[in-house]
Automatic annotation (TrEMBL):
Transmembrane segments: none annotated. Gene3D superfamilies: Transcriptional coactivator/pterin dehydratase. It comes from the Bacteria. InterPro entries: PCD_sf, Pterin-4-alpha-carb_dehyd, Pterin_deHydtase. It catalyses: (4aS,6R)-4a-hydroxy-L-erythro-5,6,7,8-tetrahydrobiopterin = (6R)-L-erythro-6,7-dihydrobiopterin + H2O. It is an enzyme of class 4 (lyase). GO terms for biological process: tetrahydrobiopterin biosynthetic process. Its EC number is 4.2.1.96. The gene is phhB. This is Putative pterin-4-alpha-carbinolamine dehydratase.
Amino acid sequence: MSELTKQSCEACSADAPTVTADQKQALGKDVPDWQEIELDGEEQLQRVFKLKNFAQAQAFTNKVGDLAEEEGHHPAILLEYGKVTVRWWTHKIGGLHKNDYIMAARTDAAYKDMQ
């Protein structure tokens, strides 16, 4: 399990810096199944999770929602039959922050717990 799962998100202001290329590479090693994408000019982390059916996908979506509420850091979530797409990024800075990698790692752990 990634060390990131044990960390909490830090408060982030609108002038906080986005992660550097070196930080992305280092943090990305802990969440290798996530893709860095750009959507509407903002870098984001995205992963598609495969589940057995709609009920399991919905339960996973709720777990991710609970994690988000605990940290006050909220993703975009697309719930479909047997599939959940999660995107993490820091809205205030319009890109990636260490918090997004922490939450990606916690999302992975929640998924693993459901398997």
